[in-house]
Amino acid sequence: MSVMVRIPTPLRRLTNGQAKVELDSTNLGDLVEKLNGEFPGFKDRLIDENGDLRYFVNIYLNGEDVRFMDGLGTSTKSGDEISIVPAVAGGC
Fold first, then answer.
1. Residue 52 and residue 55: Cα distance in Å, rounded?
2. With 70 as the cut, is the pLDDT of residue 10 above it?
3. At 36, phi and psi to the nearest 5?
4. What pLDDT is recorded for position 86?
5. Half-sphere exposure of 63 (CA within 13 A, CB side)
6. Is 0.85 surpassed by the pTM of this model?
7. Is residue 17 part of a domain?
8. Which residues on neighbouring strands pair with residue 22, listed in sequence order?
9. Residue 63 sits in a domain of what CATH number?
């Protein structure tokens, strides 16, 4: 079994419309690399030029914000669920 990644609507054009993808990975950084290998350009949407998560992208592992875990080094295992949530801004 693998890690399930929920793809937000703005990034689904990279995944040919798929709302979920499954990949094998040992940590979040590895998962991002594999997403980018399968869907070129994906990494650029998540990772900045310094190799850190972009400030407007939130990633959750089983409902927990990875920024409060080990960031891109956060371990993943079979059956885990990753949610990518772009920040939302707006108002009057």
1. 9
2. yes
3. -65, -35
4. 87
5. 0
6. yes
7. yes
8. 4
9. 3.10.20.30
Domain housing 37 = 3-86
Q: Provide the b/e sequence for 61-85 (b: ≥16 CB within 10 Å).
A: beeeebeeeeebebebeeebebbbe
Residue that wins the pLDDT comparison between 26 and 90:
26
For 83, the enclosing helix (H) or strand (E) is strand 81-86
Tell me, yes or no, whether 20 lies in a domain: yes
Question: Whole-angstrom Cα distance, residue 5 to residue 33?
Answer: 13
User: How is residue 33 written in tokens?
Assistant: 């690399």
The total number of structural domains in the chain stands at: 1
Give residue-wise pLDDT tens across range 34-92: 999 999 999 999 999 999 999 999 999 999 999 999 999 999 999 999 999 988 766 66
Three-class DSSP category at 75: strand
Token pair for 19: 């709302």
